[in-house]
Amino acid sequence: MAQISIIGAGYVGLVYGVAFADLGNDVYGIDIDAAKVEMLKAGQCPIYEPQLPELLERNLQSGRLKFTTDYAEAVPNSEFIFICVDTPSTAIGEADMRAVRSAAEMLAPHLRDGAVVINKSTMPIGSGDLVSSIIAEHIPDGRKFSVISNPEFLREGNAVADVFKPDRIVLGTDNDADAVARLKELYAPLDAPVLVTDRRSAEMVKYASNSFLATKISFINEIAQICERVGADVTVVAEGMGYDPRIGPLFLQAGVGYGGSCFPKDVKALAHMAHEADCHPQLLHAVMEINADQRRRLVKRLQEQTGDLHAKDIAIWGLSFKENTDDMRESPSLDIIGMMLARGANVRAYDPAAGERAKRELPRVDIVSNPYEAADGADALCVITPWNEFKQANMGRVAEIMRNPILLDGRNLYKPAEMRELGFTYVGVGR
Ligand code: NAD
C-alpha cells in the first residue's frame, strides 16, 4: 500500500485517483476547483466516463480515496505525488505551463524527504528539468526528492479500462534508479511493459505518439478527398490498407477530423517546439491544415446540397469530440456549428452525454433531448460524433420527419445505398 497525492482531478487525475485507490492504496485527490472537490466528496462524478461513477463511490466508501483543495493536508503524507493538471495551448501554440508551475510551487514546501514527483500531464520537452528546479527552489532545506516523467496514454471514453490495462508505461528519469524501482512497484499490478529512459525521451514519446495518430487521421482524410474526385470509396480503401500489419486498421476512419483536449494542442505544441529548435516541421503543419479543411469541407458540402444556409434548420447529431465522452474541448462540432451560425442557419443538436455542457458552450444552439427531436422538420442532418446510438437509429423515421431528407454523414456511419433507398440525399466523406 502506498500513499499517493494526485494533483488535478480532471479526466486523467480523477481516473488515476480512483484506480490507485481501487488497487488498495491511500489516495488524496487535490484540485484548486473547490466546487469540483465538493462534488467529488459527495460522490458525484463531474465527467462522463464509463465505470467511473461506480469506482468513485466504492473507493470513497472504503475511505481510501479523499479529496481536498489543501496541499498541506495531502502532500506531507505522500510518497508519490502525480501532477495531472491541464496544459492547454497558448495563443502561439505552445503548451501553457502555468498550472504545472503553480502545482510545483504549491507542492514543494510540503514534500517529505525522499518523495517522488511524477509529471503525468503532457509537458514540453525539458519540463522534467523545469519542475525539478521549481521544487528545488521551494523545498525546505535538506529534503531530497525525485522528478520522473511518466506521460499518459489513456483514451477518454475508455479511460478506466486503459488505466487498468495500459499498452505501456514510460518512465523517464535522469539517473534515479531508486525512484524508478519504487514507481515500477506501484504500477506492478497493471502488468504492462515498462520502458525506462531519460526524461526528455519520455516526454517526446508522448508528443510523437499523439502526432503520429493525428497524422494517420489526416492521411486518410487526404485520401478521402482524392477518393471523392476519382470515384473510389475510402471506407473500402482503408479496410484494404488496414489488413497490412505494417499499416493496421486503427485511426484510418475518414471523417470530420480529430479534436479533443489532446491531439490538436499536442500537434501544435510539437510544431512550436520544432520551430524553437530551428527545425521545419512540414508534416505537422500539413496534418493541422488537412484537419481544419475537413471541418470546412463538411459545411461546404452541406451548402452544395441546401444552397444558402440563411434561415435553414440544420440538425446535428453528436457534439462531443468523440463517442463515450462529454468532453467538447476542440470538438469538430464547435467549428462546424460556428460556421453554420455565421451563415445564418438555425441549429438544433442532440448529444447522448454532452448536452448539458453544450448548453453553456453553445448558447445559440437549441439543445434537445433525443435524436428525432433534432431531426424533426430539419433541412439537413449532419452526423458529427460516431455514438453507437446513431448507428442503429430508425433512419426511415428520420427521413420522414425531416423537411428535406439531406444526410451529411461526417463519420461514414451508414451505407450510402441503404440511405438513398430510405429517401435521403446522402453525402459521406470520401465515398
Ligand atoms: P482537465 O482539464 O480535465 O483537468 C485538470 C484539472 O487540474 C482541473 O480539474 C483543474 O482544476 C486542476 N488544476 C489546475 N491547476 C491546478 C493546481 N495548480 N492545483 C491543483 N489542481 C489544479 O485535464 P485532463 O484532460 O485531465 O488533462 C491533464 C493532462 O493530461 C494534460 O496535460 C493532458 O494533455 C494530459 N492527458 C490528457 C488525456 C485525456 O484524454 N484527457 C490523455 C493523456 C494525457
Give the total of domains. Answer: 2
How many individual helices?
18
How many strands, which pairing sense, and closed or not: the largest β-sheet? 6 strands, parallel
Strand content: 5-15%
CATH arch. level architecture of the largest domain: 3-Layer(aba) Sandwich
Q: Mind telling me the CATH class of the largest domain?
A: Alpha Beta
Low-confidence segments, ≥5 residues, pLDDT <50?
Answer: none
**Rg over alpha carbons:** 23 Å
Outline: globular
- At the fold tier of CATH, the topology name of the largest domain is Rossmann fold
Tell me the helix content: 40-55%
CATH H level of the largest domain: which superfamily?
NAD(P)-binding Rossmann-like Domain
Which ligands, by name, code or SMILES, are bound? Answer: nicotinamide-adenine-dinucleotide
Number of strands: 14
Strand order of the largest sheet: 3-2-1-4-5-6
Distance between the amino and carboxyl termini: 54 Å
Mean of all residue-level pLDDT scores: 97
Structural class: alpha/beta
